[in-house]
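Lab manual, section 2.4: Encoding a predicted structure.

Procedure: take the sequence of the chain (434 residues), apply the prediction step described in section 2.3, and record the output as structure tokens. A sample record is shown.
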Amino acid sequence: MKFYSMSIKLWGEIKDPVHGYIYLSELEKRLIDSPPMQRLRRIRQLSAAYLTYPGAEHTRFSHSLGVMQIAGEIADHLRELGALNEEDVSKARIAGLLHDIGHGPFSHLYEEVLEKRGVTHEDLSRLVIRESEVSDMLKDQGYDVDEISKLSIGVLNGKILLNQIIAGQFSADVMDYLVRDSYFTGVEYGRIDIKRLINSLDVTDGRLVMDIAALYALEAFMIARYEMFKAVYFHRTVRAAAVMLVRAMKYVDDKLGLSSFRTVDEFLEIDDSSLMNRLLSLKGARDKSSQIAYELTVGFRNRRLLKCAYEKIVHRRDTFMLNILNRGEVRNDLENEIASRAGVDPNFVMIDVSTATSVPQSSERRMDEPQIFTKASEGSKNILLFRDLSPVVSSLTGYLDIIRVYTKEEDLEPVKKSVRELFDRESTATKISY
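Recorded output:
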């Protein structure tokens, strides 16, 4: 693969198992070598998935390199079409490299602990870019730090194309994590044709559109997201480990200050290992919350995981189940009632719901629908909606959410019985205050 700009001096290269050689500019190399970026080597891309898929030990660091590479390829393709310039290509690569620099330990699991602060990893990415040594590196090369921080999460005003490269429907982020996660887990569903998708992109009215000639590749891309959600991201055992760790963190967040960092430097000290060490330091604690958190953490570490007592795939029109999905207080009340009926410890009855978008056209969390173009005889583009061209993907619209109930193995049967009594009666919905 050619370096994205032959006018920029090549300062190094990295061999990536997914994309091959990734060539670096001087600034990119400096950013990669900075402590905030090196910290991402200590944060697993798929948090708890390695307990189910032993190969899933890859990190946010390697994913960031991949996003930089794909963002550069997309931007360079658009430069050749005359839609972007060389500076835009450089910005896209840097933003792709830095897009996950604000991830906390165990990736998205830590974000569930940060919810009470109203903070996301995107917020933290912007903060790290603006307030760490990354800021000085960008300034030294003449970049606007605030501009790069906004572009890194796809919210740069007036730059729709650049935003779409980083965080849009055809984003470099999604393209990389599908192929990378597929490669390291050994699951085949994410092996999409990235080159075909990139080379089929064009621009209409300042937005990305896809050539109808690549319809099958785009269809495979959408289905890959759906299949990877089911097979990896919300796999039953993967989530068993995830809910245990999240619950452990929430129980002792205030006591251990897991999310109470006050500065960027304090935040950057937290990674997978340091967080686990804090949780394991609870051994011998006398208060109930710490004891439960420690038990859950040791179970996570030693892969003694909770078992699934109930699972339901939910269509969005199911009002009762939709209520469970969207309202944490309803889930808490149900956990207590399930445990009471089953005669088990309510601290080890956990309702888990999918919080990530599984299918791009999910009705409640709809993303911009992909637009397809055909060329008219005079060279103009006719724009069509993807759903009108793809019956396969259209059939997935409105799906897919999953609700599961987890508990200890020794409590599995009474909890199963309790859940069936609560969830499968027609009168259940009347017991929930909407």
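Check your result against the sample. Confidence is low (pLDDT under 50) at residues 357-367, 426-434.
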